[in-house]
Design brief:
This protein is 33% helix and 18% strand. By secondary structure, the chain is an alpha+beta fold.
């Protein structure tokens, strides 16, 4: 699998984390929340899940630790390129559900021709 290709688990995590829910849709720029260890010898250190750690290891995400309580894993330029590649498949990031992400990536909505006129899907 190429470095730019997201795994099945990575795609599922992205869809889950950036799904629009009840309020304003989440933004890519805000990243994904990562917890810290609460107890034990790792107390206070970042505790990214295996999927996020895999993306960090592959250079698709970074996890800056500014000492604040909340950590956010953010996409690198390589990670954004992998997201654009993922977005080429409408099934991976449905325009109806993830328009906010496609907009943030600068991807235009695909159009379907209906009765001679273009209609955004």
């Amino acid at each position: 699998m190429g470095e730019m290709t997201l795994t099945t688990k990575e795609r599922a995590l992205i869809r889950h984390e950036f799904m629009a829910r009840f309020s304003a849709p989440p933004r890519l720029a805000d990243g994904i929340l990562v917890k810290r260890w609460a107890t034990g010898p790792e107390k206070g250190k970042p505790k990214p899940g295996a999927t996020i750690q895999g993306m960090i290891d592959r250079g698709l995400m970074e996890l800056p630790d500014n000492g604040g309580h909340w950590l956010r894993a953010r996409f690198t330029s390589a990670g954004l390129a992998a997201l654009r590649l993922m977005a080429e498949d409408r099934r991976a990031l449905s325009p109806a559900e993830y328009r906010h992400i496609l907009d943030e990536l600068g991807i235009q909505a695909p159009t379907d021709k209906i009765g001679g006129s273009s209609v955004a899907v």
